[in-house]
Amino acid sequence: MIRVIITFLGGLLIACLGFFALLKFIEDKPVPNAVFSQSIIDAKLSSARSFASTPKTVVVGGSNVLFGIDSQLLGELTGRRVLNFGCAAGFGPELILHLLKPHLHSGDSVIMRWEYHQYLFTRSGTVNLTYLNLLTSTQNEFMRELPIYDRTRLCLSIPVSLCWEGVQTAYNPFVDTDLYRCSWAIDSMGNVRSNLGVKINDSEMGYDFFDPNSSFKITTDVDDIFSDFVKFCRQKKISFIVSWPNVAFQDAHAHPLVQKKIENIIEFWRDLGVVVLGRPDNYMFKKHDLYDTVYHLNQQGVRKCTKLLADDLADWFSGSVGN
Amino acid sequence: MLFNEQAFLFYFLPVCFCGFWILRSKLRSTNCSYFWCLICSFFFYGFHGWHHLPLLICSILVNYLLGRVIQKEKASRLGFFIMWVGIALNLGVLGVFKYADFFLGVVESQIHFGLALPLAISFFTFQQVAYLVDLRRGEIKPPSFLNYAFFVSFFPQLIAGPIVRCQQLIPQIKEKATFRLRREDFWCGLCLFAMGLFKKTYFADGVRPLTESIFDAAHSGTILSFTEAWIGGLSFGMQIYFDFSAYSDMAIGMGLLFGLSLPINFNSPYKATSLIDFWRRWHITLSEFLRDYLYKPLGGNRSGVSRGITNVLLVMALGGLWHGAAWTFVAWGIFHGILIGFNHLFRATGSRFSRPKSILLVWSSRLTVFLVVTISWIYFRCQNLSTAWEMTSSMIGINGFDLPRSLGLDGNLSCVRFEGLFPNRIAELHLVPVLGFLILFVWFAPNSCNLLKYENFEVSKRKQPTLPVLFICGILLFFGIKSSFEQINLEFIYFRF
User: CA-to-CA distance for B113 and B100, rounded, in angstroms?
Assistant: First the structure.
């Protein structure tokens, strides 16, 4: 009987070791999607390095910032040096803040504009593939810093097919991996300049958060992540504020159930002692201002959004509100 | 709750399993343990949608009461009448939920019920119809209500079969049960479960993206090339094969974990050498149900070959309709019915091809059956007949043949184009080699039940799996459980029926 149990458990153990060895093997073999994401990160880090001196203002968030704010224009309107650190929503707030932290110093200011669904982020629950792709390869160091429970769950949620895709990508002699790098034109201040025209369809204008029937509960992971960041900023004497993400105009924004969700967000930040500037509907745009997704703006929309943000920031910069 | 979901693997199954055996060994009570399992089964069913649980409970109650009356009035015509009332009630409920909108659509009615299909209704309806008929035939005696409710709702077989018959399960329940789990049953059950879990998550769900990309292209109006259509058919053929095979293994495996033998429902159908043979290997319990409760009462082949073939056609058309309320399923059933009819005719001629003996004949028959079944899957998977016909046309060359560009001659010939084997930019083509591996696997790998020496209800013959098999199953179980952490948990295809 003992032999039977040992043999069966041996199989389990060997499989487990084999899988983790496979993960180790693919660390330096990113899949095409990870090559794409990492190239955005590279561009962002390069911009951040060129903004080494203090004080500076950093606008951070997912791609609603990348495709929503012109840091050069915002700098001209506010008389400050502004860096656009908008990445991609799929990276999750924890990785984005992890990448930003080393570039923040005392005296800097941070404006956070998170897409609504970022408030539902979980470290190891419902994880999107973009995040997993990065964590298995180019951002492996970051994964090692996560709590062991989340790290284990994340490792187990990596599909074997992803490992196979990584190997195929690395050893495909016919395709240069650079082909998969992001082709968006990102300038030295972190702004996308290739968002010209309107590419979004009417069917893509909806956003789940503004559906009165969709549930919304800020996760404990998000609470942890933002609490840590707030603590970090206070220790480093970095001022920070929260604004709303740009999004396509949503008719249901005034619905009581949607308003309740918005109040939840405001209350969440209030509990952390952070001021939220303006209202979500200030940052809602018509189709002609949008680019290719519900929260990506084209150059015309970016200019409008930047001016709105500059107006909202005037009081904060003058010191009458916020931290 | 799916068998490959964390809620099932980490909470439901361990709690149900431990509770069952603790009750049995500590209280020395089979009734308590079956009652516990019944509650768990109701919970399992309700987890998919609580609003349909009352339907299942009512169905069990009504059928049990009807069964008592049939037993009491066995000698009189009233028993016969009650049996038909029971059948009509069961089929009526099935008809309302599953077929009402379909038939209203056929007569172009403006009325639509829009009722959600209760999970497993086709399975528990057939199981209970068989129970009433068997009672009337005097083949069984009514069990206690607890045993009956357990027999209908036992969760491993509740959702997608096998369609267990009363005489298969009740004697095992009534048997003077052992108060501890047999070691052979435990290991055999665990290994079958591991094999099923692996087959579902890596094989069936592995080729699913390829199937979807091709069928989605077909539905959007793309005319598929000869190769694309065949790859689509083969990939769905593999997907449904491993999906159903996995479910059957897991159901039998879980049955064994509770000390019960469930009937084998799947026996390497792609190794079949004739269509008749195929249906003796694919969804065996459904085939047996259709044979015993429909084909034979219709007269079978007792009134000659032509009448027998007509009966086969009718039974297969209804069998197709059982899978879903759509013309595509009817077409699929009729397609199989026609081919089975030909098979019967062929056998009647006494041709040596009808019962192949040499390896060459066996393999040519096997290949023919496989290709024919692959074409038939197109009708099973497509959402409408026109798309299915377009795909079939591509498969049989009516839409021409596409050959590699490298072979290109000057210009295209009338029915031959040199625009590549996959001219329609089908996604997920990297899975084509996997498809090749799976085809070889179904033909040459041993059947899981054979590998574990599992035979229907032959408890005494059951042996503990060998050490190499246990070791491999340990590996499979790890990867099966690991897949439950992945974000994609896909339903079994037969859950829809």
Answer: 7
Return d(Cα B324, Cα B330) in angstroms, integer.
8
**Considering only CA atoms, which of A267, A247, A263, A245 is closest in space to residue A255?**
A263
B420, B421, B426, B427: CA torsion to nearest 10: -100
Q: Angle A147-A151-A152 (CA atoms, 0-180°, nearest 5)? A: 120
Q: Tell me the ipTM for this assembly.
A: 0.78
* Yes or no, beta carbons of A161 and B206 under 8 Å apart: yes
Label residue B409 by pLDDT band (50, 70, 90). Answer: low
8 Å CB contact of B190 and A8: yes
Q: Residue A154: how many CB atoms within 10 A of its CB?
A: 19
Q: Which of B198, B428, B470, B490 should we substitute to test contact with A (largest number of A Cβ atoms within 10 Å)?
A: B470
CA B20 to chain CA mean position, Å: 27
Give mean pLDDT, residues B135-145: 89
Contact between B309 and B341 (Cβ < 8 Å): yes
Residues in chain B within 8 Å Cβ distance of A4: 187, 464, 467, 470
Tell which A residues from 118 to 137 touch B, by Cβ distance under 8 Å. 126-129
Q: What is the pLDDT of residue A44?
A: 93
Model confidence, pTM? 0.83
- Taking the Cβ of residue A7 and every Cβ of chain B, the question of whether any pair is shorter than 8 Å is answered with yes
Residues B460 and B248 sit within 8 Å (Cβ to Cβ): no
Other residues' Cβ atoms within 10 Å of the Cβ of residue A203: 6
Per-position pLDDT tens, chain A of length 323: 888 899 999 999 999 999 999 888 888 888 888 999 999 999 999 999 998 877 899 999 999 999 999 999 999 999 889 999 999 989 999 999 999 999 999 999 999 999 999 999 998 877 788 888 899 889 989 998 888 988 888 888 888 888 888 888 888 777 777 888 888 888 988 999 998 888 888 888 888 899 999 999 999 999 999 999 999 999 999 998 999 999 999 989 899 999 999 999 999 999 999 989 989 998 999 999 999 899 999 999 999 999 999 998 887 777 655 55
**Which one-letter amino acid corresponds to residue A66?**
L
Q: Are A143 and A91 in contact (CB under 8 A)?
A: no
Give the whole-angstrom CA distance, residue A219 versus residue B153.
37
Q: Which residues of chain B have a CB within 8 Å of the CB of A152?
A: none
Whose CA is closest to A164, among B109, B205, B431? B431
Token pair of B288 as six digits: 């047996």
Instruction: Please enumerate in sequence order all residues whose Cβ is within 8 A of that of B20, keeping only pairs 6 or more positions apart, or say none.
Output: B33, B36, B37, B40, B258
Output the pLDDT for position B457: 66
- Option in B187, B471, B487 nearest A157 (CB): B487
CA dihedral sign of residues B15, B21, B27, B32: positive
Closest C-alpha to A18, from B26, B478, B297, B238: B478
3-state helix vs strand vs coil in chain A, percent to 5: 60, 10, 35
Distance CA B482, CA B277 (A): 36
Question: Which pair of structure tokens corresponds to residue B484?
Answer: 């439950």
Residue B440 has phi, psi (to 5 degrees) of -65, -35
Mean of pLDDT values over B408-419: 67
Q: At what angle do helices B205-219 and B432-444 cross, to 10 degrees?
A: 120
Of A295-309, B135-149, B413-427, where does mean pLDDT reach its minimum? Answer: B413-427
Q: Is A203 on the interface with B (CB under 8 A)?
A: no
Mean pLDDT of B179-205: 90
Q: Distance (Å, rounded) from C-alpha B115 to C-alpha B302?
A: 41
